[in-house]
Specification:
Distance between the termini: 57 Å
Shape: elongated
Largest sheet: none
Oligomer: single chain
Number of helices: 13
Helix content: over 70%
Number of strands: 0
Structural class: mainly alpha
Order of helices and strands: HHHHHHHHHHHHH
């Protein structure tokens, strides 16, 4: 009696959704690439270098402020008077003394800040480029050398800051406040629906500018550059997600910094969360671009691992089982042959 055939296993719900919806299959492929490439690990590294780079940047800012105040004694005296009128007791004099010592050491603080900022910035850029390269799944060739790699990271970091400066400038030009001033100058501030139009226009301009920046990051910062066409849709997804995250984060920070603990730790924690979510968003968008159908067709295939051949020599003592069987067969044949000869 033949056993009954086992029922065929049905595909799971995720497999059915992936087979039915192409966009969902693409999202799952991007998530698999993100996880296989250790996206969370790289996002944490980018966040660390982002926070670490703020301290030398603040040192440079203090040095610039020191040079400005050293050349304007009237402004310095006015700031000192405001500190003494606002803060009471010996603490006000301590703040004034600290500010004066910072102004006196502005040159050394500026030099140390610039050197530390350059070192931390190169580490941040190297981590970001390595993460984007892993998301694209690019094969790693022989390293070009330490000096050449650092020069390449320095050029990429300079280009990133220039692109960020242009983005910030264009965003400021497209802000609703500036547009409102222009409308007030033109006498059109009382037009019905102008507030809503300005908000929508400012939002669209912000998304457009962020889209261009993210597209440049996804396409040009990996070790091996890719086409802008492959990164444009991923950049748009990242820009829309980033704008939504900014709106939610602004509401969250307003509710957090109201208390004393939030006012002390809220900005730092908010900055860490902001940097981490932004890094994850960019890396996931890069994985989404790398797992598109047109990129999967030309994706490099890694060569198989080298085969290791290990010869095995087996030494058997004595005839063994096959030898005994053969000897027994020969003995039987020999006995049969002798018995026939005797009969003849």
């Amino acid at each position: 009696m033949t056993p009954p055939a086992e029922p065929e296993s049905k595909p799971g719900i995720l497999d059915r959704l992936r087979a039915r919806y192409r966009w969902f299959d693409h999202v799952m492929r991007a998530q698999e690439r993100y996880q296989d490439s250790k996206g969370d690990f790289y996002a944490a590294g980018i966040t660390y270098f982002t926070i670490f780079s703020l301290f030398p940047v603040l040192m440079v800012a203090f040095a610039i402020g020191g040079f400005v105040l050293a050349g304007q004694p009237d402004l310095l005296a006015e700031i000192e008077d405001k500190i003494k009128s606002t803060v009471s007791g010996d603490f006000a004099q301590q703040l004034v003394t600290l500010m004066e010592s910072a102004i006196e050491s502005r040159t050394s603080v500026g030099i140390i800040g610039l050197a530390t900022a350059a070192w931390a910035g190169l580490g941040w850029m190297a981590n970001l480029r390595e993460a984007l390269t892993q998301m694209w799944g690019q094969l790693r060739h022989e390293p070009p050398g330490f000096l050449r790699t650092k020069l390449s990271d320095l050029a990429a970091m300079t280009g990133f800051f220039l692109a960020s400066a242009v983005t910030i400038a264009l965003t400021a030009l497209g802000s609703s406040d500036l547009m409102m001033h222009v409308l007030e100058w033109l006498g059109l501030q009382n037009v019905p629906g102008v507030d809503l139009t300005l908000r929508v226009t400012s939002l669209l301009v912000s998304v457009l500018i962020t889209w261009l920046l993210f597209t440049w990051v996804i396409a040009r910062l990996p070790r091996e550059s890719v086409s802008f066409r492959s990164a444009m849709r991923a950049g748009l997804i990242a820009a829309v997600g980033f704008e939504i995250f900014k709106q939610v984060a602004s509401i969250y920070l307003k509710s957090v910094v109201t208390g004393p603990a939030g006012a002390t730790f809220g900005p730092v924690l908010g900055l860490m969360v902001f940097a981490y979510i932004t890094a994850r968003l960019i890396l996931f968008a890069t994985a989404w671009a790398a797992t598109a159908t047109e990129n999967l067709g030309v994706a490099p295939v890694e060569p198989p691992a080298p085969a290791q051949i290990t010869p095995r020599v087996q030494i058997r003592e004595g005839p063994g089982v096959p030898g005994l069987v053969a000897a027994f067969a020969v003995g039987v044949l020999g006995a049969l042959g002798l018995s026939r000869l005797r009969k003849h």
